[in-house]
Design brief:
Elements lengths: L9 H18 L14 H18 L5 H22 L30
Helix pairs in contact: 1-2, 1-3, 2-3
Length: 116
């Protein structure tokens, strides 16, 4: 094991902090460069959270313990913030109910050239 195995690479730290700040701005928690409050955009905030999650998955096993801990902590906080921002809407995917659950058989063509 390298003597640098538990160090936090400054470039990696800057990247994840930058993405975290972009998520915070999308949540409406940070002001823009001019000091103006930004309206919350949960779709954008969710995209930044997903981006960090993807980065975590793609770098799994290649990060130092310090890097993994910082990324995991940031992701935990942002995921919690995402749930809080949704308020009463805790579902990311809304389940289909009733007639919306399955398409009616007459609405689904059997073959590409078979238009009902």
């Amino acid at each position: 094991m390298s003597e640098y195995a538990d160090e936090l690479d400054p470039s990696f730290a800057n990247l994840i902090v930058y993405i975290g700040q972009m998520a915070a701005m999308a949540f409406g928690d940070l002001a823009d460069a001019a000091g103006n409050r930004i309206e919350a955009d949960l779709a954008a905030a969710g995209a930044f959270v997903e981006m960090l999650g993807m980065l975590q998955e793609k770098t799994r096993g290649n990060l130092t313990a310090a890097e993994a801990k910082v990324l995991e902590g940031l992701l935990y906080d942002l995921r919690l913030r995402y749930v809080q921002a949704q308020g009463d809407q805790k579902r990311i995917i809304t389940p289909l109910t009733g007639a919306d659950h399955f398409p009616r058989h007459r609405d689904v063509p059997r073959r590409a050239d078979d238009r009902l």
